[in-house]
TrEMBL record:
It is found in: Membrane. It is a multi-pass membrane protein. SUPFAM superfamilies: alpha/beta-Hydrolases. Belongs to the TMCO4 family. The lineage of its organism: Eukaryota, Fungi, Fungi incertae sedis, Mucoromycota, Mucoromycotina. It comes from Mucor lusitanicus CBS 277.49. Keywords: Membrane, Transmembrane, Transmembrane helix. The chain crosses the membrane at residues 71-92, 124-144. One of its GO terms (cellular component) is membrane. This is DUF726 domain-containing protein. Its main location: membrane.
Length: 281
């Protein structure tokens, strides 16, 4: 019986349906049948646009480097964010808050879909990054609530924007019969910034830290810090991340379309950095 792999992405650079599946396009067909769930395209495109504005027009290349390599530890220790960033929070805060709520609702819908066997009665692997990982988290919580065991075989989450409790994560692991992978990056300053007002604290966010002391030791924590430069790079780094998590991929390289987008974004960053240096000189 062929395994069914259900993939959930996150923000979108455009409203085209194939953008949602692009980060997972190098998964080998030998891994089973692949389904990509395309949800809330307008909202995810709006979030993607907000992220791009924040990354290119609001934050210079030099500030990003400083945040990734020197300030992240201070942020996780509870110190204040740079004032320049705090003033720019309005660019992403509302789209991000909407996306968090919609992803929770999408998780409940996914749970209902799995329980109704709409995808057939086959071993299911759930894979997601960023908001897609959040969808899966709430899906698992709902399945645990109704004791719907035997539906999900494996789970792989990357950069999960969830500050769940140990009890909630334990509930999630009870639903998964096979591997439960949590991919995190300690240098993800953007994820830390987006959760800066969280009362739970940054230390509880799965995408920033390993999930430790979860009863049963079911979680396989995967340090992805060397593969991602921040939250925005999860999308383009998925082939390498999937391979590290044990998936078979046909290539570790990005599809050409994504490479072009990444190159264009980097050109904008460099141009902005150059303009800032000229203005300050």
């Amino acid at each position: 019986m062929k395994r069914l792999n259900v993939r959930y992405g996150s923000w979108l650079p455009s409203k085209e349906a194939d953008e949602a599946s692009l980060p997972f396009s190098t998964l080998d067909p030998l891994m089973g049948d692949h389904y990509n769930l395309y949800y809330e395209p307008e909202m995810l495109f709006e979030l993607g646009s907000a992220f791009r504005i924040f990354a290119t027009e609001a934050v210079t290349f030099s500030i990003q480097q400083a945040l990734a390599h020197t300030i992240m530890g201070a942020l996780l220790a509870g110190l204040a964010f740079p004032l320049a960033l705090t003033k720019l929070g309005y660019i992403v805060d509302n789209p991000w808050a909407n996306a968090l709520d919609r992803s929770r609702l999408a998780g409940l819908i996914l749970a209902d879909t799995l329980m109704n066997r709409n995808l057939g009665a086959r071993p299911i692997t759930l894979v997601g990054y960023s908001l897609g990982a959040r969808v899966i988290f709430f899906c698992l919580l709902e399945l645990a609530r109704v004791k719907a065991f035997g539906l999900v075989e494996n789970v792989a989450l990357f950069g999960t924007p969830v500050s769940g409790t140990k009890a909630e994560w334990k509930e999630c692991t009870t639903i998964v019969s096979g591997r439960f992978v949590n991919g995190y990056a300690t240098n993800d300053w953007l994820l830390g910034f987006l959760f800066r007002t969280s009362t739970a604290g940054l230390g509880n966010i799965a995408g920033l830290r390993p999930l430790s002391h979860i009863e049963g030791n079911r979680v396989q924590n995967l340090d992805c810090t060397d593969l991602v430069t921040g939250h925005l790079s999860y999308r383009s780094s998925m082939p390498k991340l999937l391979k590290r998590a044990g998936f078979v991929v046909t290539s570790e390289e990005l599809p050409v379309k994504e490479k072009d987008n990444k190159a264009s974004l980097e050109e904008v960053r460099l141009q902005l950095a150059q303009n800032n240096r000229q203005c300050c000189s």
